[in-house]
Amino acid sequence: MTMLDNRTAPPPPSPWPAGYPEGYAVVDVETTGLGKDDRIVSAAVYRLDARGEVQDHWYSPVNPQRDPGPVWIHGLTRAMLADAPLFPEIAGELAERLAGRVLVAHNAVFDWSMLAREYARARSAAPVDHRLCTIVLAKELRLPLANHKLESLAAHYGVVQQRAHHALDDARVLAEAFRPSLHLAAAAELPLPLHTCRPLTEWVDSAVPAPRYGALYGSGPRSGWRPARRRPACPYPNPGRLAPDGPLVQGMRVAFSGDTGIDRELLEDRATDAGLHVASSVSRLTSVLVANDPDSPTGKAVKARAYGTPVIGEREFTELLKAVTPASGVHG
Q: Which residue among 38, 108, 164, 205 sits deepest, i.e. has the most Cβ atoms within 10 Å of its Cβ?
């Protein structure tokens, strides 16, 4: 097979590969956190045609009806969101932009899960049948990226970020980076890594938990909002320790030490959802230890350092969770 120049997309082949989608909705959402009961605080969509050309774009802030969470990441304060529409008020307009298109996102399982839960809370469903993860596509194209962060993919194609973690700019950046990736895949007649989207129903027949994020982000006492439960076994093999500046990979064994700013179970839920193995203790098999203070002398931290296991902060961990690399052969 002829090697392709991954930096310059070739002219679209003619005919375009049969079976490729007729259109795409490049999506980015910013949220109050990473757990199952977190809420969207802003959403953006760039609609693309069959060959990745931009047709239009849309953006809206969303009032999450709770503390907005990590303002240091998305920049949206409670005051800024006070007059923003609630998700049910934008659900129809957003659905029009998703309908009949493949949802494209960077770590698509996260954006899809957040959207699906918001639609379930609104007693509706997002009109999306398939999603495409640009992390998986970059892997299948064998792009020479240092890591799988959006900024690395953008830099590879010379796309300039203007406001990182602003939903509209992140969606724009991803749309501009997705187009040449799409053309590279088409030129190589590579089947696109499409993954079926199934509506979530967990919120339809149960009450939405009460807002509680003032406590979780350090402005009040912690609350035990649900009992501990047994977690399912991780279905992926352990790929080893977290590499310096490397991504989290499905199957990695993650342990937590000490108090965390975000509720511990929320972090563990998000790690489990991303395909990581949440462990209660540190061993030679532990891939990474997460601590609110990485320099703390806790027993787990001391043991991790003795094993050569990296110890990272909570904020770094939540950033890495946004772009977990799928296990070999797994589509996101």
A: 108
